[in-house]
Amino acid sequence: KAKSRKGIRFLFVMALAILGLFFLPIIKSPKSTLKILPNADWEQIKEHIHTQDLLRFPLLFEWTAELTGYPQHIHPGSYAVDNWMGTLPLLKVLFSGRQETISLVVNKYRTEHEFFVFIAQKLATDTLALRQLLSDTAYLSKYQLSPNNSFCLITPNTYEVYWSCSAQTLLDKIGKAYLQFWNEERLAKAKKLNLSPAEVSVLASIVDSEALVDREMPIIAGLYLNRLQRGIKLEADPTVIFANKDFSIRRVLNKHLRKESPYNTYIYSGLPPGPITMPSIAAIDAVLNAKNHNYIYMCAKEDFSGTHNFASNLSEHLANAKRFQQALNDRNIKK
Fold first, then answer.
1. Are 73 and 47 spatial neighbours (Cβ–Cβ below 8 Å)?
2. CB of 290 closer than 8 Å to CB of 226
3. Cα separation of 157 and 86, whole Å?
4. What is the pLDDT of residues 87-111, one digit of tens each?
5. Where are the alpha helices (DSSP H) in 26-84?
6. Nearest to 134 by CA among 167, 178, 179
7. How far is the CA of 311 from the CAs of 123, 177, 216, 298, 319, in angstroms?
8. Angle (nearest 5°) at CA 199 between 198 and 203
9. Which pTM does this prediction carry?
10. ∠146-233-307 over CA atoms, to 5°?
11. Which end of the chain is more exposed for a tag (fewer CB within 10 A), N or C?
12. What is the pLDDT of residues 21-39, one digit of tens each?
């Protein structure tokens, strides 16, 4: 009987020891993230864990995962883990598929390419699928947008999303914020200007590119609205720079003005077919609340302060332009 009791105690101690292994802290860092890509298989996950050196006992984790059937129940995502976690608590999190949301802060991006690069850096979302959706006429129709102006859909904002979210899930979330942004008040103001929300955003993208100080935005917006309403070409230098696809241009020359492009407002009347950058909310609201004045010309000030001289007639504008051209020459800025 004594031997039998000793044997039971030994087995009990061994069982506790083995069980303790499963709860022994396994995560190396106090706070870390385990990311599992969409469509990742078990071999890829194991390779990722080894490469990133995330776990103290990777072989114990792999053996336990296989024993519990985790390789057949993989949920992609970004999982927040802590160094108190043992193998079983970690697997419980992974089995559940409960990942934390990410606060995706979308700021103003100059081009669609910059936006896609940003998404690729922050999320596991398929950016090719995202591009395709932004070119899908049927998908965009619910926002009254087209492939030419689909960039208008993306409003600078903070979006709570999952790291592994699909392209459509991400764009649906962005689209929901877009519809909320274009509330009754903003829609009424756009209608009063005889512009659609997309046209407001396109004009705002030009205003945003022209204005280095926010206080000038409503003045610049009013100027371009004056030109639109009077049937005068916008002749906005930022559209020429966009048409030439050369954002290093500091001085717009005649050769730049001749660039054949629907975005070149020196050649074509009215608004370009789409935004030349992602407009800020400040620029959109500046268009909707544009200042009422008679200006139809603007020129950067010769002091290079980033502000402008405005004019309501050509002779005044030419005098302003002459001073600025001279300032460029004085600083040997040729292009």
1. no
2. no
3. 37
4. 888 888 888 888 888 899 998 888 8
5. 42-52, 58-68
6. 167
7. 47, 38, 14, 6, 10
8. 120
9. 0.83
10. 95
11. N
12. 556 677 887 777 888 888 8
Q: Can you list the pairs that 244-247 forms with residues at least 24 positions away whose Cβ atoms lie under 8 Å?
A: 247/110
| Residues near 266 by beta carbon (within 8 Å), at least 6 away in sequence | 233, 235, 239, 240, 257
Token pair for residue 114? 């910059």
Alpha-carbon distance of 300 to 214, in angstroms, equals: 15
pLDDT for 275-299, tens place per residue? 999 999 999 999 999 999 999 999 8
Q: What tens digit of pLDDT does each residue of 220-257 get? A: 999 999 999 999 999 999 999 999 988 888 778 789 88
Q: How far apart are CA 113 and CA 99, in angstroms?
A: 28
The length of the chain in residues reads: 335
- Report, in angstroms and rounded to the nearest whole number, the Rg of the chain calculated over CA atoms: 29
310 Cβ neighbours under 8 A, 6+ residues apart: 219, 223, 293, 295, 297, 298
Q: One-letter amino acid identity for 245?
A: K
Do 273 and 262 meet the contact criterion of CB atoms below 8 Å apart? yes
